[in-house]
Design brief:
The structure is a homodimer of 203-residue chains. By secondary structure, chain A is an alpha+beta fold. Chain A is built from ten helices and four strands. In chain A, strands 2-1-3-4 form a four-stranded mixed beta sheet. In chain A, a hairpin with a 4-residue loop joins strand 3 and strand 4. In chain A, helix 5 packs across helix 8, helix 5 packs across helix 9 and helix 7 crosses helix 8. Chain A is globular and about 45 Å long. The first copy, chain A, starts with a strand and ends in an 8-residue tail after the last helix.
Chain lengths: 203, 203
């Protein structure tokens, strides 16, 4: 079966609409999707950025919020919140997502995005993350302990290193089995088409 | 009639595939297209960049060349050249494009991109630009003189200032009549859908 990896960062604005639609897009193309939470911090640091490029470049920030509103409106996602502070610290959410099994991870990840960008909740807050776990019938303390184990911390670090090795430069990114990287919410379709063997389709 | 502006920079790598397909995309949606050559230099300088971001950030450069090859392959565009130096100095080409009437400007602009990225010709070279004008049945010296008149130089500067005012942060950009900006070759369809009153369509 065709397969692809969906690399996402919980602080990333465009990862939100991507996370909400990627499962359907993959399924309709018969592509098995692996959800890969990671952190953009090390990728950005390697480019010399110590902050989100949307904070460094105000014109890009203005464009992004307006563009993302149009995209989320079209998807019928709830009125967008702009998280404060921006970007949110996504370390805990990423560790928890990685500690979950595949089936739960996608569902939990969508819930984190909905909390962060739909409701404006602080995703660095343990209580916020715990509540999302409880809603999924999980024992929050058990999952949080697993998430913050040394093994899981090391696993997330390894994933971040792998992201850089794959050539990932931003989030979300779709990576195909043959190592092609497609960066951006607006490139999910092309990446999944490639993964499904259809290569690129243009108008 | 619905209308939109296509803002492009001759040195811009993604403006190449965009320029090659935007006219058909606009026509199929009944959108009248104005071709707006401009320079990214002032926009980038305002963000603190003195060079192309693809030169400043090697990981972005690697991604871009590979991504653009996939896109151009899918469009059937000729094997891509990487211009040397990169980016090319696009001032002369932009002045000439602006000095042409609407009908000729689109055709000339596509020819500049084909010369630069399809053949690897230096577009800052007057002889290269003159040859493209002659091929279109134009008197090259007359057009070049008009392009380098004080009035036309001032007109290009004014266009660059207008690009910044519109909120343009990169090229290519599609700007609709109601002031929406869509940045990127991969957003032409959405921008033109918006201009045609269809707003955004997502899978």
């Amino acid at each position: 079966m065709a397969a692809a990896e969906f690399w996402y960062e919980f602080a990333s604005t465009y990862s939100y609409p991507a996370a909400m639609r990627v499962a359907d897009l993959a399924q309709s193309r018969g592509v098995a999707l692996a959800w890969q939470p990671f952190l953009l911090g090390p990728i950005f640091a390697a480019q010399g950025w110590r902050d989100s490029p949307f904070n460094i470049y105000p014109a890009k920030r203005r464009y992004m919020w307006r563009d993302r509103k149009r995209i989320c409106d079209a998807l019928g996602l709830p009125p967008l919140k702009r998280p404060v502070p921006f970007p949110q610290n996504s370390l805990l959410a990423a560790r928890v997502a990685l500690a979950l099994d595949d089936a739960t991870r996608a569902d939990f990840s969508r819930a984190v995005y909905a909390a962060e960008f739909g409701q404006g909740l602080p995703i660095a807050d343990r209580a916020v993350i715990a509540a999302l776990l409880v809603k999924r019938g999980l024992d929050a303390e058990t999952v949080l302990a697993r998430a913050e184990s040394d093994a899981n911390k090391a696993a997330l670090k390894a994933e971040c290193a792998r992201a850089a090795e794959l050539g990932i430069i931003g989030a979300p990114s779709l990576v195909t089995g043959d190592g092609e990287v497609f960066w951006g919410n607006d490139r999910l379709e092309q990446g999944l088409d490639w993964a499904a063997g259809r290569r690129l389709k243009q108008d």
